[in-house]
Amino acid sequence: xxxxxxxxxxxxxxxxxQYITLLNDxxxxxxxxxxxxxxxxxxxxxxxxxxxxxxxxTFSRNVGAIMVQDAxxxxxxxxxxxxxxxxxxFSALEMGKDETRSLEEAYAAAGIPVISNASAHRWxxxxxxLIPEINxxxxxxxxxxxxxxxxxxxFIAVKPNCSIQSYMAPVHALALAGFPSKRLIVTTMQAVSxxxxxxxxxxxxxxxxxxxxxxxxxxxxxxxxxxxxSIDNGIFKNAALPNISAHCNRVSVTDGHTACVCLExxxxxxxxxxxxxxxxxxxxxxxxxxxxxxxxxxxxxxxxEDNRPQPRKDRDADKAMAVVIGRLRPCNVxxxxxxxxxxxxxxxxxxxxxxxxxLLRHRGYLS
Length: 367
Ligand code: NAP
Hints:
Helix 1 (14-22) packs across helix 14. This protein has 14 helices and 14 strands. A hairpin with a 2-residue loop joins strand 8 (230-232) and strand 9 (235-237). It is 31% helix and 21% strand. With 367 residues, the protein is of the alpha/beta class. The strands form three sheets. The protein has a six-stranded parallel beta sheet, with helices on both faces. Strands 10-7-11-14-13-12 form a six-stranded mixed beta sheet. NADP nicotinamide-adenine-dinucleotide phosphate (NAP) is lined by residues 10-16, 36-37, 39-40, 71-72, 92-95, 117-119, 162, 193-194, 196-197, 344-345, 348-349.
């Protein structure tokens, strides 16, 4: 199979590097274009990441030799697109929201689809926020987005915040089985890699917990409603429920965001904890049915041990794309409570972005 050539904007950062490692042997996509800030532009990729490569696995010789371009130079990407080196881009940029928003729009206007990790477009009314196991049908908005903006081939699709990944699939699986949630209280313990590199100063993190991550609680409370929402006349209409109250904390863990969730169902409640575990164990979405390369075989893994999930032991489950849950028990205030974990730079970032690209290719939006 001829692989689709892809570009990575922000290729030198924490998430960009994760894209490079995950796409190393990807059967459908091949990295042929990399871009970052003007600080890295003009260097070979291997020089640009020298001394700040975060992974054990290294990049291929081909990728190491690619010249890093300035991500702000859309014209350069358009030339690469015409040359056949960049059919679409993954955006892993960390810059101002307004700058990111207009830059991603400029790529789409130049005919280059953008699959983004940034939060800039998550609230744009015609941009889908995708978790392929939950709302693959939200890609149906793309023709309307292209028409409204006069884009012929380009479009923007994004993935949600990394901290909500671990509990969205379990909540969705229960709703599908007839038990939608009414209210959720979630407390997250989020890894340091979630703040990029160099991220939070070490003196703030060692022997410490920081009980504030700017903007994270608002994202955790709002984004699920768009993901559970519907398309109405070319824009998204949010779901009304569940009401979510979030506490987001930065903890001294390298990778893996953990969430402690208390959940209240609507009128209908599952009969037992075993019924819930069965629903989670049986849950599968389009990525599993269509066997996407990045898809975990079982998106929700339940562990019966009292002391799981743990970041170090569970974050890499099934290519680091599965959500691992444990400690399901009745709640004295709501109906149930449980602990959920997902890998923030894989499922919550680059792996999630690649799964989105696989979905978009499957639906015929990427060629
Ligand atoms: P990061 O490690 O700080 O990397 C940022 C990247 O953006 C680098 O490649 C950097 O290039 C580039 N960049 C910075 N300023 C730029 C500019 N003015 N023009 C062009 N490029 C610029 O950040 P990250 O953690 O990878 O996060 C990337 C994006 O993913 C962010 O939007 C973040 O919110 C989102 N995200 C992150 C995670 C996570 O777990 N880390 C999870 C989900 C979503 P240089 O190396 O040349 O400076």
